[in-house]
């Protein structure tokens, strides 16, 4: 099978790039499409994002993981112009992007989806898709009045939309209002719609959340396919099996910072990552001495807390609290 | 009771000048609110701008009538820009507040004593419609449409121009809303951020929508002024905007003909109720109210009707039930 081989090659190609790369946060990549420096976003006293340096390799699938509240979505918002970073700069394809408004970011080829899906409810699924196409003649006021000027382009757009809908198994829904779709179908629609933009870099915020496992498999196929078509994918995901399955490289955020990077097979056994996920669930087994150390810490914290009679801030105990161990 | 009188009056107002004025005002609002989701509560200001532009140009400054029309259209664009630039980047409710305030400012400016020389103060302006009626192709006389309704030649001329404007506006909106341009507006109504993420300049589209709806509103202002051959500031109070919204919701928002049918039905019903009540009182069928009380009572009944409409047919006459169902999800 020729196609399969090609897919394998692309994957190998993408992963070969990362072979031997250091797992330090902010490690330089051979051909970065996106380079981020010192991006900081504060909400009052809370520093939601504080990323010193990070690079995204062109043509790869990079996963961005981290516990709830790590700042992943906020980081996306800064990069895509949906929020104004307090400081920092970043370049996309070598072009400085800070202060560029959201629609221009999308036009330049950097398209994001939202964690909380934004289906355009009272538009049909097909209209949702068509909206994604760029440089539409009929989107200018005066030309809109003369259908013959944009009809042909509209037909081409429709054709492309139908193809994508088929790939995402939404073709049967094309005439329905997007608002009538289920949660998972909306995720699919949003991803398909983002692809209508023909982006170079796709940023997916939890694309698989709420999508059933069978469909997830085919979605994973689509994401790999994007890499195959030469796109770069950056996605946020909590499901580690999925991350392992499709990503070439993983970036880990915690409390606003990038704390580790590395290949998907080994990243979860990285100490820094285990620390970051502690307190939340984590599937990497703890070493015996690590466990003992944490127990001791937890006890010390409890004693200290009892002594101080809740004088300590809640944050200090969070890092040392240990969940009850299930037998 | 004279049923012929009651029905002929109702039909006359269903196609009369009021229906035309409110249809145009509501078509403008439909662009703002129905298609783009912009809560413009200052539509009265756009009508005022149109009406006063003609009146002031012709009566105060003695300039040609069509120059007044041009100035009216231009000022409507300027007003839309003035309202939009500071508010369209903010949350939707800010536009609502600012537009209410702006409409009041326009009304208070034209009724102010300091500017009485120009705008005529509370009395307003008369004697500016001669060149308009000079173009009237209808010879003097009474024109009967069908057997029960009829208008004089001046009203016929206003109605002809008015309904042509309504038809033209509807046609333009029809073309626009079928186009990708209209698709962007409807998408903005649903979720601005999604539209931004797809590379569309949301601010620019909202501004275009505000200008388009405002200009159509100023057309309503022209007809308003010309049909009365007079303008008074207090005709352009917030009440006008609310009636226009009523008309829009009655007919069905985001439907091409919604505002037109809504306006016709609104005015026909209003007059049906008031003439019906007057006749009933006069002929002794109803004894517990006087003719003077009919005015307020008809609005109570219209209010009641609207409440029932919103409960039993929230999508309006032309609306799509499926769309309302989506809101519940
Ligand atoms: N608009 C806001 N105002 C105040 N605080 C905010 C705002 N947006 C985000 N935060 C805070 O910033 C932190 C990071 O939030 P963010 O949504 O980026 O997390 P996340 O990594 O995407 O988490 P999850 O995996 O749960 O989606 C959180 O503590 C959140 O409370
Ligand atoms: Mg998030």
Structural commentary:
The complex is a heterodimer of chains A (327) and B (329). Chain A is α/β, with parallel strands linked by helices. Chain A has 2 domains: 3-119 and 181-278, 3-Layer(aba) Sandwich (Rossmann fold); 287-322. Helices cover 42% and strands 19% of the residues of chain A. Chain A has helices spanning 2-18, 72-79, 102-107, 125-131, 141-144, 147-167, 183-196, 213-228, 240-246, 264-267, 271-277, 288-308, 314-318, and strands at residues 32-43, 46-57, 61-65, 87-92, 95-96, 110-112, 201-205, 232-236, 249-254, 257-262. Chain A has a 6-stranded mixed beta sheet with strand order 6-7-8-3-9-10, sandwiched between helices. Chain A has a 4-stranded antiparallel beta sheet with strand order 2-1-4-5. In chain A, helix 1 (2-18) packs across helix 8, helix 4 runs parallel beside helix 7 and helix 6 crosses helix 7. The longest helix of chain A has 21 residues, at 147-167. Chain A is elongated. Residues 310-327 of chain A have low confidence and may be disordered. Chain B is mainly α and 329 residues long. Chain B has a single domain (3-327), classed as ABC transporter involved in vitamin B12 uptake, BtuC, CATH 1.10.3470. Chain B is built from 15 helices and 4 strands. In chain B, the strands form 2 sheets. In chain B, strands 1-4 form a two-stranded antiparallel ribbon. Chain B has a two-stranded antiparallel sheet with strand order 2-3. In chain B, strand 2 and strand 3 form a beta hairpin. In chain B, helix 3 (43-60) runs parallel beside helix 5, helix 4 (65-87) runs antiparallel to helix 11 (202-228) and helix 12 crosses helix 13 (258-282). The longest helix of chain B has 27 residues, at 202-228. Classes of the chains: A alpha/beta (327), B mainly alpha (329). Chain A binds chain B through residues 80-82, 101-104, 106-107, 111-114, 118-123, 127-128, 130-132, 134, 136-141, 143-145, 147, 150, 154, 177, 179-180, 190, 193-194, 196-197, and chain B through 172, 175-176, 178-184, 186-187, 189-191, 193-202, 208, 212, 254, 322-323, 326, 329. The complex binds adenosine-5'-triphosphate and magnesium ion. Adenosine-5'-triphosphate binds at residues 43, 46, 48, 66, 68-74, 115 of chain A.
């Amino acid at each position: 099978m020729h196609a399969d081989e090609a897919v394998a090659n692309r994957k190998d190609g993408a992963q070969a790039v990362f072979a031997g790369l250091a797992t330090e946060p902010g490690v330089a990549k051979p051909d970065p499409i996106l380079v981020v420096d010192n991006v900081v976003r504060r909400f009052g006293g809370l520093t939601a994002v504080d990323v010193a340096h990070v690079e995204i390799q062109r043509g790869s699938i990079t996963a961005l993981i981290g516990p709830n509240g790590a700042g992943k979505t906020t980081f996306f918002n800064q990069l895509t112009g949906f929020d104004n970073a307090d400081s920092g700069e970043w370049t996309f394809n070598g072009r400085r992007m800070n202060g560029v408004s959201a629609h221009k970011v999308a036009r330049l080829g950097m398209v994001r989806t939202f964690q909380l899906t934004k289906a355009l409810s009272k538009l049909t699924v097909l209209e949702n898709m068509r909206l994604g196409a760029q440089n539409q003649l009929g989107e200018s006021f005066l030309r809109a009045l003369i259908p013959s000027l944009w009809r042909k382009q509209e037909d081409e757009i429709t054709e492309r939309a139908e193809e994508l809908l088929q790939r995402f198994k939404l073709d049967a829904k094309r005439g329905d209002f997007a608002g009538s779709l289920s949660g998972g179908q909306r995720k699919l629609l949003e991803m398909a719609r983002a692809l209508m933009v023909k982006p170079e870099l796709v940023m997916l915020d939890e694309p698989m959340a709420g999508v059933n496992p069978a469909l997830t498999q085919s979605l994973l196929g689509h994401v790999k396919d994007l890499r195959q078509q030469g796109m770069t994918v950056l996605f946020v995901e909590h499901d580690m099996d999925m991350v392992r399955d499709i990503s070439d490289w993983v970036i880990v955020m915690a409390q606003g910072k990038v704390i580790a990077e590395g290949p998907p097979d080994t990243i979860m056994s990285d100490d820094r990552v285990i620390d970051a996920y502690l307190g939340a669930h984590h599937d990497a087994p703890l070493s015996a001495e690590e466990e003992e150390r944490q127990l001791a810490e937890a006890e010390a914290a409890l004693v200290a807390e009892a002594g101080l009679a809740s004088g300590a801030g809640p944050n200090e105990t969070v890092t040392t609290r240990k969940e009850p161990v299930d037998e | 009771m004279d049923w012929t009188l009651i029905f002929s009056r109702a039909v006359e107002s269903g196609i009369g000048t009021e229906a035309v004025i409110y249809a145009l005002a509501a078509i403008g609002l439909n662009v703002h609110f129905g298609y783009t989701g912009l809560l413009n509560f200052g539509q009265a200001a756009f009508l005022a701008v149109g009406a006063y532009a003609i009146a002031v140009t012709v009566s105060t400054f003695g300039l040609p009538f069509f120059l007044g029309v041009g100035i009216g259209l231009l000022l409507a664009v300027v007003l839309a820009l003035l309202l939009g630039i500071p508010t369209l980047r903010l949350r939707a409710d800010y536009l609502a507040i600012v537009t209410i305030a702006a409409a009041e400012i326009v009304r208070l400016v034209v009724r102010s004593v300091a500017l009485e020389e120009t705008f005529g103060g509370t009395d307003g302006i008369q004697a500016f419609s001669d060149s308009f009626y000079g173009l009237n192709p209808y010879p003097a006389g009474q024109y009967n449409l069908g057997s029960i309704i009829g208008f004089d030649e001046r009203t016929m001329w206003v109605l002809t121009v008015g309904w042509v404007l309504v038809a033209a506006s509807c046609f333009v909106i029809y073309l626009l809303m079928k186009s990708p341009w209209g698709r962007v507006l409807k998408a903005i109504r649903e979720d601005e951020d999604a539209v931004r993420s797809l590379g569309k300049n949301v601010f620019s589209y909202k501004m275009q929508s505000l200008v388009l709806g405002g200009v159509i509103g100023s057309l309503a202002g022209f007809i308003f002024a010309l049909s009365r051959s007079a303008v008074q500031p207090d005709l352009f109070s917030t009440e006008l905007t609310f009636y226009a919204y009523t008309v829009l919701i009655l007919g069905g928002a985001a439907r091409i003909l919604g505002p037109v049918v809504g306006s016709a039905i609104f005015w026909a019903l209003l007059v049906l109720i008031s003439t019906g009540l007057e006749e009933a009182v006069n002929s002794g069928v109803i004894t517990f109210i006087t003719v003077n009380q009919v005015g307020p009572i008809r609005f109570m009944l219209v209010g009641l009707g609207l409440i029932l409409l919103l409960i039993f047919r929230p999508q309006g006459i032309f609306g799509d039930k499926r769309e309302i169902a989506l809101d519940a999800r």
